[in-house]
C-alpha cells in the first residue's frame, strides 16, 4: 500500500467527476472529507467506502443546505433541510425523501446526537513574515457555519495579509489556514469555486461594460444563475449597461458585491464591503448578509464601520501589529465602548462643576464640552442635574474609541 493510501491520511484526489480532499483508505474516500462536484454540489463530513455516509452537510447548487445523517450519499435518518427561500424541513429522511416530522422533544434528543456545527474557516498558528519583519504572527481563530466574523483593526494591522493567505495568494511562513477542511495554499482553485470574495480595492476591466464583466466572471466560474444575478442588480439598483470607467465609486462597489454574491457561494470573505455605498445601500447590504446567514452561509468581514459589524457579525477579532489581541462577542464589544456626550451649558463656568464632579472631559468650546462616560451614568446624570443644561447630544463613535482598550492612547491612523 502506498504511504498516502494508509487509512486516515489526507489526500486530494479526483472523485465522481469532482475533487475530494480528506481521509482515504484503499485509494477511495473513507473517514472525514469534502467533495466539490462540477455542478457546485458540496459534500462535507463522514465518508465510507467512497460514499458520503454518516453525519455531514450537503450544499446544493440552487442554494439549499442539508445537515444531518446520510447513508450512501442520500439523506437518510434525522436531518434538517434549509431551502433557498429560508424554509426548513426537520425530521426523518429515507433514501433522500422526507418521511415525517418529529415532535420537539424527539428533535432535541436527536439533535444532541449530531455533530456540533463545524468550522468553515479555520486559521491555525498562521504566520506570514515579510522581509521587513512585518506581517502576521501566530494567528489562530475559526468561523463556524452560519456565523459572521468581523475582522477589525487599523490599516497596516495585518487584515489584508491574512485574507491573502486565506485566498491562497501567498504561502504561509508557518501554520496553515483551511476553508471547508481544504488547505488554502494547496487547494486554492477548488476553494475559490465555492467562495465569494470582495477585495478592499477592486480592479475592473474599465473598458468593459458592467454587463460584459458579469458575463465574463459567470463564464469563468461555469455558473449561470441569471435569476440570482438579476435579483441582486435590482436589489442594489444597479444598471450594469454602462462602461465601468464611467461608474461612480458607489456603482463600482455595487458591481463588486453582485460579483461576489451572484454564484451563491457557501462562504464569503469581504474586505470593506460597504465602502462608497450610501446609507440606504449600506442597510440593504446588511439585510442581505443577515438573510444569507439564515441560509447557513459563513462570513469573514473586514470593516471600519462598527455599527455594520454589530448588526451583521456574531463575533469579532481585533488584530494589532499582526497579532490577534482579542476575539469577543460583538455585544461585549458594544458594551465596552465608551460613550461621548456633547453637553451644552447655559454658563461656561458650569464646565468646571462637571470637572470637579470627577467626570472625564474631552474637547471644550465656549459653553459646550464633551463628556466621556463608560459605566458611571449615575455620576454623570447627578452632575448634570446640578447644571443648567441647554443641549445634550450623543457623539457617534467609530472603531477608534473601541480600539483604545486594546491599543492604548496612541494614534490610530486609518
CATH class of the largest domain: Alpha Beta
Mean pLDDT across the residues is: 85
DSSP strand content: 35-45%
Radius of gyration, rounded?
25 Å
The CATH architecture term of the largest domain is 3-Layer(aba) Sandwich
Provide the number of structural domains: 3
Query: Roughly how much helix do the residues carry, as a percent range?
Result: 25-40%
Q: How many β-strands, per DSSP?
A: 23
End-to-end distance:
56 Å
Written account of the structure:
28% of the residues lie in helices and 37% in strands. The protein has 414 residues and is α+β, with helices and mostly antiparallel strands. The chain folds into 3 domains: 3-113, Histone H3 K4-specific methyltransferase SET7/9 N-terminal domain, CATH 2.20.110; 119-329, 3-Layer(aba) Sandwich (Rossmann fold), CATH 3.40.50.300; 338-396, Alpha-L RNA-binding motif (Alpha-Beta Plaits, 2-Layer Sandwich). The chain has a 9-stranded antiparallel beta sheet with strand order 1-2-3-4-5-6-7-8-9, covered by helices on one side. It has a 6-stranded mixed beta sheet with strand order 15-16-17-12-18-19, sandwiched between helices. It is globular, with a radius of gyration of 25 Å. Residues 1-8 and 409-414 have low confidence and may be disordered.
SSE arrangement:
Blueprint: E1 10-15, E2 18-25, E3 28-36, E4 42-48, E5 51-59, E6 65-71, E7 74-82, E8 88-94, E9 97-101, H1 104-113, E10 119-129, E11 135-144, E12 148-152, H2 159-166, E13 174-179, E14 182-183, H3 188-193, E15 195-198, H4 210-221, H5 226-235, H6 249-261, E16 267-271, H7 279-294, E17 298-302, H8 306-312, E18 315-320, E19 323-329, H9 330-336, E20 339-345, H10 350-356, E21 360-365, E22 368-373, H11 377-385, E23 389-395, H12 399-407
Parallel strand pairs: 12-17, 12-18, 15-16, 16-17
Antiparallel strand pairs: 1-2, 2-3, 3-4, 4-5, 5-6, 6-7, 7-8, 8-9, 10-11, 10-13, 13-14, 18-19, 20-22, 20-23, 21-22
Amino acid at each position: 500500500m502506498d504511504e498516502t493510501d494508509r487509512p486516515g491520511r489526507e489526500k486530494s484526489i479526483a472523485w465522481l467527476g469532482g475533487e475530494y480532499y480528506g481521509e482515504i483508505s484503499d485509494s477511495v474516500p473513507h473517514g472525514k472529507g469534502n467533495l466539490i462536484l462540477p455542478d457546485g454540489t458540496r459534500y462535507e463530513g463522514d465518508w465510507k467506502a467512497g460514499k458520503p455516509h454518516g453525519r455531514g452537510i450537503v450544499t446544493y447548487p440552487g442554494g439549499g443546505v442539508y445537515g444531518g445523517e446520510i447513508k450512501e450519499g442520500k439523506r437518510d435518518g434525522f436531518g434538517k433541510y434549509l431551502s433557498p427561500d429560508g424554509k426548513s424541513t426537520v425530521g426523518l429522511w429515507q433514501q433522500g425523501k422526507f418521511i415525517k416530522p418529529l415532535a420537539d422533544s424527539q428533535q432535541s434528543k436527536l439533535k444532541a446526537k449530531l455533530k456540533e456545527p463545524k468550522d468553515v474557516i479555520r486559521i491555525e498558528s498562521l504566520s506570514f513574515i515579510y522581509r521587513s519583519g512585518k506581517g502576521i504572527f501566530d494567528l489562530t481563530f475559526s468561523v463556524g457555519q452560519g456565523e459572521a466574523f468581523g475582522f477589525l483593526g487599523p490599516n497596516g494591522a495585518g487584515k489584508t495579509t491574512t485574507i491573502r493567505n486565506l485566498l491562497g495568494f501567498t504561502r504561509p511562513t508557518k501554520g496553515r489556514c483551511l476553508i471547508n477542511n481544504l488547505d488554502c495554499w494547496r487547494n486554492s482553485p477548488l476553494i475559490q469555486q465555492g467562495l465569494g470574495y470582495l477585495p478592499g480595492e477592486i480592479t475592473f476591466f474599465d473598458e468593459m461594460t458592467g454587463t460584459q464583466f458579469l458575463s465574463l466572471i459567470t463564464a469563468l466560474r461555469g455558473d449561470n444563475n441569471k435569476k440570482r444575478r438579476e435579483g441582486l442588480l435590482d436589489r442594489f439598483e444597479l444598471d450594469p449597461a454602462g462602461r465601468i470607467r464611467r461608474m461612480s465609486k458607489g456603482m463600482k462597489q455595487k458591481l463588486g458585491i453582485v460579483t461576489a454574491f451572484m454564484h451563491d457561494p457557501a462562504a464569503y470573505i469581504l474586505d470593506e464591503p460597504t465602502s462608497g455605498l450610501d446609507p440606504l445601500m449600506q442597510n440593504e447590504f446588511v439585510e442581505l448578509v443577515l438573510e444569507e446567514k439564515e441560509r447557513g452561509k459563513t462570513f469573514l468581514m473586514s470593516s471600519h464601520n462598527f455599527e455594520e459589524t454589530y448588526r451583521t457579525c456574531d463575533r469579532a477579532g481585533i488584530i494589532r501589529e499582526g497579532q490577534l489581541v482579542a476575539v469577543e462577542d460583538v455585544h461585549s464589544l458594544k458594551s465596552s465602548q465608551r460613550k461621548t456626550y456633547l453637553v451644552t451649558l447655559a454658563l461656561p463656568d458650569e464646565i468646571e462643576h462637571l470637572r470637579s464632579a470627577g467626570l472625564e472631559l474631552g474637547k471644550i468650546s465656549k459653553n459646550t464640552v464633551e463628556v466621556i462616560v463608560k459605566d458611571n451614568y449615575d455620576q454623570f446624570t447627578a452632575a448634570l442635574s446640578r447644571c443648567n443644561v441647554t443641549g445634550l447630544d450623543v457623539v457617534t463613535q467609530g472603531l477608534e474609541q473601541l480600539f483604545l482598550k486594546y491599543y492604548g492612547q496612541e494614534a490610530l491612523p486609518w
